[in-house]
Amino acid sequence: MSENVVSTGAVNAVKEVWEKRIKKLNEDLKQEKEFQQKLVRIWEERVSLTKLREKVTKEDGRVILKIEKEEWKTLPSSLLRLSQLQEWQLHRTGLLKIPEFIGRFQNLIVLDLSRNTISEIPRGIGLLTRLQELILSYNRIKTVPMELSYCASLEKLELAVNRDLSDLPQELSNLLKLTHLDLSMNLFTTIPPAVLNMPALEWLDMGSNRLEQLPDTIERMQNLHTLWLQRNEITCLPETISSMKNLSTLVLSNNKLQDIPECMEEMTNLRFVNFRDNPLKLEVTLLPSENIDEEEERELFGLQFMHTYIQESRRAGNQVNCSTTSPNSIDADG
């Protein structure tokens, strides 16, 4: 009996020793594997850093990282060793996301990541207080973080062709130096209030969206000189558009406009207008010009068409007034 107990105890002791050895061996193997993986990561980081350094150029005294049509779905943390970079130009790289550490590149002036597959803008973008240009067109961005409003030096913002983008945070009106904004080919149904309140905005493209009307407050954009609104669903223009005294280029082709408001005659700074492909109520034919240069200029600018249309519209209104005796019918026609 006692011999069996001793034998069992001895077996258990041996078993315990072996279990400890096996456990220790597994832990050692795990640590070895982790160490090997770490070495691989370090090696890959070094290789990546070497490749990235080869893509760094200097133009006009500016240090630029330039990558075109070469796969970089993610950017390694080793990129932080190139903190002196002032400009990124990464196009058609398949980049999936802007790295979270982007805010540590305090020298960045231009960040151009257009034509990739980026789906979001990290909040750390707001740390780039020297950033002047942010170009993220042709990506998959759906929302813009309010932290972007902290980029106090931003002058140019391009978010065209992100398809699902439909709004901007109100805080972006704090971008006091922003003069150029491209929001074309997205899903905006109205001009965002943030845009209307951008004090320095001079150039705006909201073509190929889903705009149905322009807000009466559009006159707030007093510094705007160029406005692209082609390929929307705009049915009428607000009277307040005539208060945009600096507007010189206005493109409204391919909309649903039925009329041109008379107040647009007051827009003396207009140099280029385009009402092509709208279902306007009146058919206006311009007399051909004997001067070829004038003919080409007229076709290009469309100013004569606009003024002629307004005159014809006014004349048609007067004819209705003259030929109608009933006040009710005059109101209906007007």
TrEMBL record:
Residues 78-185 form the Disease resistance R13L4/SHOC-2-like LRR domain. InterPro entries: Leu-rich_rpt, Leu-rich_rpt_typical-subtyp, LRR_dom_sf, LRR_domain-containing, LRR_R13L4/SHOC2-like. Keywords: Coiled coil, Cytoplasm, Leucine-rich repeat, Muscle protein, Repeat. Residues 15-46 form a coiled coil. SMART domains: LRR_BAC (SM00364), LRR_TYP (SM00369). The keyword Coiled coil applies. It comes from the Eukaryota. It is found in: Cytoplasm, Myofibril, Sarcomere, M line. Component of the sarcomeric M-band which plays a role in myocyte response to biomechanical stress. May regulate expression of other M-band proteins via an SRF-dependent pathway. Important for normal contractile function in heart. This is Leucine-rich repeat-containing protein 39.
